[in-house]
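Hi, here's the filled form for the chain we discussed.

Project: internal
Contact: R.S.
Residues: 171
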Amino acid sequence: MSMSTYLINNQDSLDDMGLEQGPVVISRWVTFTVANETYAVNVLDVQEVLRAADITPIPGAHPAVRGIINLRGNVVTILDARVFFALPEKPFDDDSRIMVAELRSGEIAGIVVDSVAEVIVLDEAVVNAAKRSGGDEGSAHILGVVPQTEKGNDRLIILVDLKGLSELGEK
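And the returned structure, exactly as it came back:
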């Protein structure tokens, strides 16, 4: 069981039928927005979140690559989430953030998003039920969609495989 996954023993709680429930496994997800849509990535996939950074462009790079930054002496490639989601470009503003993560290739990269909101807790059964099988190549980085109600408002949270974004940049 990963560090972001927890076992909660609900032996004293009852379900809707009055039957005792078993243990619940939960995981933590960092929510972020891109073009007013809410996305989430597993908290273990995110090393840190940065505010503005001085991004140096790389001539001739893939359109998803915004450039590189110097992060404590390490060169980090910065990718634009809007390109992966086929959305128009947006300039970096006060709410924009860079989520730094280790990609599947082992490379450390930053992903530019419109904003980072919060860490939420999801029941692992809900996450597993939301995961898609198959799908087209363009949405291979989308794990699934989870409905959530917050303060009486219904919203959908799109679960993203952050580590898989690097593979899209290679295509």
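Let me know if anything looks off before we file it.
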